[in-house]
Write a structure and sequence with these properties.
Elements: H1 8-19, H2 24-31, H3 35-42, H4 50-59, H5 71-77
Length: about 80
Amino acid sequence: MEWDRENTIAQFVRDRRKKANLTQVALSDFTGVGLRFIRELEQGKPNLMTDKVNQVLLFFGHTLTPTPISDETRRNLGK
């Protein structure tokens, strides 16, 4: 799988971190996850541990949740 810097979670974390005027190092310190993990998360690494992703998202008041997708999106996933 390829890394996708533009995936929703990568964009969300990057944008929220910047709006909070935090460096990646500071976000790592505040959330208790490693700096390498923060960097990989923001760069869209496809196979990150969900518990650590949630640890970062919780800092911003969010969590991973199942989200329904449209039939069109479902069809496009099969391509």
